[in-house]
Amino acid sequence: MSAAQTASQDATVQVPREQYEGMQSQIARMAQDYAELKAQLEWFKRQMFGAKSEKRQEPSPDQIALFNGQAASAAVEVAKIAVPAHERQKRRTGDEVNDTGLRFGPEVPVKEITLSCAELDGPNAEQYEIIDYKTSLRLARQPGSHVVLKYLRPVVRHKAAVAAGLPALITAPAPLGVLDHAQVDVSFLAGLLVDKFVYHTPLYRQHQRLIDEGIVVSRSTLDKWARDAIALLEPIARAVRLMILAGSRLKVDETPIKAGRTKGANGQGKMKQGWLWPILGEEGDIAFYYAASRAGTVVKEVLGENYQGILQTDGYHVYAKYAAGLPGCTHALCWAHTRRAFLKAENIDPQPVAQALEMIRGLYAIERELRAVGADQGTILARRKTTSEPIVDRFFEWVAAEIAKPELLPRSPLAKALGYAKEREPGLREFIKDAWLALDTNDLERALRVIPMGKKNWLFCTTEFGAQQVATIQTLLATCRAHGIDAYTYLVDVCLLYTSDAADE
């Protein structure tokens, strides 16, 4: 043994077992911290530069990889095939706006303009005659989309009463309006609500538009008209909600909204955090419920103390707690939220995440096939039992195997995704048993998007009562949208019913 080796052995540091174990524990914590910081960095990069859509473009087997040298060289060596010349026909998208592509319904006003012809106005006009007309269409816009209805009410005099010295003047009554003593037609009220809650145009912008059109109505008046109209609609929205809760299948979610203020020193505190709870029924009806929090007690306010049926939600724990206390309530969960949990770990642990996504992708492929052929409930259940269930079994076997790996960091995004899936396994299996259940709650999330889209324009509700009114009107508008009913036409019809009821009284 050389002198250098002997010196190296003598330089070996001997540490106590307790100190060694502490150092190992510190190294493990540092590795965990590093993984968490890396996950945060990847999340920020994804928010700044990544695609916001959850869709993944699947590579085509016929697509040649750009940097695959073998494939590229093979492509070069492919023999050229002569193709007869032909003229490519441009495929229509349905969005063309020109003389042939402009389309409109019978409700759209058409203003006909007859153009002059130089030959008919010239010195030899008698030599020409009109035999036909050709049509050119132009989409135009004219100022002022509103009209003032001026009712002329006859004032009549009874001739005999005049001779007898009796009161003789009679004035025809004004037409009944949906709001008492309000100079507003039902058509304007419906447009006011649709513009604000469907097209997300705040009242101050509508007010400015009216001014630009030469109509002066105060903003406070517009606000009062909107509030009074929604108050009339509140019983209908409440009836929709009760009808949905009477069903045996529900989907529930929650979305935040700023509503009201806390008590401040000058009476103006911070905006309070409230929540709108959308409820989707089995017939496609949607109801919104406002609450000041998303605590477990609110679930009982939204669904009632003893809901009996299938409840499908995301992974928020208050729903599981609610369903666990009710023997007749079955809690189904959302595969899209499970998928999102794995997507958070995609950049750090791409290989296991790819395996999870591949299995989940297989479940969605089966559902797309069933929807494409319009399968009935019996076919759906049979296909899910024979094809989807084996994929689900394989998925959870894989989850258990991944969790058991010693190299898995406990606080890593992958560990959290695996734990999320394992904890919610019973609820994720429920779709196999009921054909109505979808793999996810995406249809409900699409329905509630009107709230975050609206908040980008009107930002918040000044009061909690205002948030309750948002829930009322969006219940009706979202249900109309779900059933393909024009919201404006519906609101006009409902308001006219209120007017006719007032006339009957």
Explained architecture:
It is a single chain. This protein has 19 helices and eight strands. It has helices at residues 3-10, 17-49, 69-77, 118-121, 159-164, 186-197, 203-212, 219-245, 296-303, 317-324, 335-343, 350-372, 377-404, 413-423, 425-428, 442-448, 450-458, 464-482, 487-504; strands at residues 155-157, 169-171, 249-252, 255-261, 271-281, 286-291, 309-313, 329-333. The strands form two sheets. Strands 3, 4, 5, 6, 7 and 8 form a six-stranded mixed sheet that branches. Strands 1-2 form a two-stranded antiparallel sheet. Helix 10 links the parallel strand 7 (309-313) and strand 8. The longest helix is centred in the first third of the chain and has 33 residues, at 17-49. Mean pLDDT is 82; it is low at 66-80.
